[in-house]
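Cont'd.
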Amino acid sequence: MKPMKLPTEARLRQLIEKNNIKALREFCETGHPAAVAEMLSGLNKQEAWTVLRNVDFPVRAEIFSHLDEDFGAKIIGILKRDEAAHLLSDMPPDDRADLFKRLPEEIRESVLPSLAKAEREDIRRLAAYQEGTAGAVMTSDYAMLLPHLTAVDAIDHLRHVAPDRETIYYAYVVDENRKLLGFVSLKDLILARRDAKVGDLMNRDFIFARTDEDQESAADKIQKYDLIALPVVTDEETLVGIITHDDAMDIITQEYTEDMEKFMAIAGPHEDAVYMKTSSWVHFKNRSIWVAMLAVVGLVSGFIVQSFEGILMQVALLAAFMPMLADTGGNTGSQSAILVIRALAQKEVSPRDIFRVLIKEFRVGLLLALILAAIAFVRVLLLSGGTQIPDHFSLSRIGLAVSLALGLQVITATLIGAMLPLGAARLKLDPAVVASPALTTFVDITGLLIYFMTVKWVLGM
Amino acid sequence: MKPMKLPTEARLRQLIEKNNIKALREFCETGHPAAVAEMLSGLNKQEAWTVLRNVDFPVRAEIFSHLDEDFGAKIIGILKRDEAAHLLSDMPPDDRADLFKRLPEEIRESVLPSLAKAEREDIRRLAAYQEGTAGAVMTSDYAMLLPHLTAVDAIDHLRHVAPDRETIYYAYVVDENRKLLGFVSLKDLILARRDAKVGDLMNRDFIFARTDEDQESAADKIQKYDLIALPVVTDEETLVGIITHDDAMDIITQEYTEDMEKFMAIAGPHEDAVYMKTSSWVHFKNRSIWVAMLAVVGLVSGFIVQSFEGILMQVALLAAFMPMLADTGGNTGSQSAILVIRALAQKEVSPRDIFRVLIKEFRVGLLLALILAAIAFVRVLLLSGGTQIPDHFSLSRIGLAVSLALGLQVITATLIGAMLPLGAARLKLDPAVVASPALTTFVDITGLLIYFMTVKWVLGM
């Protein structure tokens, strides 16, 4: 067994400097295109092109399609028009359309006329679908079969088209108007009698996506039904593309990152968020919107504290428990929110289950409240040394007040944390919009009200 | 085009009650196994078995392998020994081994002797790998070829074994000791000359995983290299299983849920965390550990507030900004933490980039500090009405103190949020252990120190 060997980055630069074409070709042709592309990302656009220029066309295009799109667009920018056109025409249609969208207007205008008419139209069609839909991620390199073919003729046809197709393991059966009728797997064809008709072999109960369907929903179908590819159809049920399992995996990863960032109230298009390549200014814009808005909303908590200033002046010790109250409420609320968001995403619960979820969360919240109230009570006793307490309040009474308030806060926060994502889902919003910082700010306000009112009541102030 | 039709749950129950075997069979045989399994999950074990009992063996096993493992184990529990053995022997080996681990000891003991020797050994072998490793998620139903076969003989062999193999699209080439030499795709075989030798056709530079490798690392390889399946080998490079693309997708989803839960400081085995099926008590245990520990650590922030009690007594207004300080620090710190954690997970940054990351975060933090300090200054002016300020402090001086403290807190929190996951990664820990609640508690402590010290210094107290 020979594990893949790649040169180090230093060695690669050396080869480029020496213009050692033979070694560079070998590097590109023996390494996996994804691994080669990863190494090229460490170079500048000129160096990367020096490496790619010497490689045969299909391999070059394959490596290129694994490059980060922005880097790819930069390289296209330094090529001659014909070189760029040739490279684009060899790329898989979906990657090509994505790359094309990143090219500056003038390069697009200059390259398009050098492409064959079919490719020009393919790029235009694929680039027209809205970002985030099944149409925008599908590829047009799929294998089609007509129903009257025999199994052996179908395999022959697939063999013929294989080099240009993303996959030949699934072939889609269409009528003369490209209306999707079903699909056959290469396995079905190989197992069938030689003269069996494709129309009889095909699976008629197939899963598909519409072009305007959310890319996440399409990827979920691929995951749920263990598919290698999913056909994408228009409203007229015409087959226009497929989404392959590897693209589905990338969509799912991208959606996760998006969910996580949303949950932390980070705005902006999450798709291309490449951490190091995003400028500090864009990072700032994405992160500041919500945080700043919440700081303004936080005014309310300031007003609450201020309106109970009298109580704080009398029992200064009470201020020492405000940070714990804020943190514990935020933590327990965010925990139940994240669990409910994940359960919603994995279809384990639906908005209709709201009462079952709330009962469960109430029980969990009650248990959490008991343990945290106990900790708070001990804290009051520990922190009491050196502070001045008005004579008519006993320390245990203050402990009772703080514990009770914290317990109520934990139960409320847990319930709010579970309720908000369920509510968002019911309103057909993404449950992850119930961002943890927003929840924390909200729970802080309810928490301070609970705290001061409970303290006032228990201490009879 | 005929979209998949499934009966409603009510209709399904009706069919079961009427014991309408024909309709139940049709339901199972026309629906996708994953969809049928999903519907069965709504029934009780007895009802589910009534549906499955009437279906032919291979279909029954396929539906069964899509059921949640705990539910599957419950159904196995009510079967006769021979029924259980037959069902298990038809299942894909990886699902079977997973299900087997869930069965109570006495059922395992009773079923094992009814299984064929090869299956018994297969179960024992697969169940022996540690949870979370490539060995534990692989399946032993892969297609093998010897290098001296011709392409046409190889296709013939694959046709022969296809019904029992998870995939025949990749076939693994081994020597007589099962040492992995390379792999061929079915596409390679179909495109090759009929008499080409498998040994000449095979890819020798292939990607693989070791049995004890982390399942996440194996799934990442499938994602990075767009594979349909990944071979798993022992330390002696003997082929023992494969991981398929659909299992890789499930692993990635599971690891993501785990990361999210870890980030929210939720403990426990994240793999089987099915929200509704987990008891409130287990939820409580998983969530309370960290939250309770942090509440204890939070004692420190209480001590800090208490030791600056004198300042609060003089300028009570200062207490009103403590919640904002705590929230803003937690929010900005968690944001930079989540971005760095995701960037680490997607290999966009490595622990070696720590200085580049910190410079970027410092810039972002500085910008955030400016905007939040401005908001804080306005807040001081707005909240000043009705409060008593000692004569020798001007309102704008208090505003300056609060703004400066908040700005410093935001910069510190942003840097700490970025630094902790990078530090964890350098120590080869999962960056997600830097849970948001822990970070919040930590940043609270630093924040309160910054706050009181800045205020003391600016106001000259």
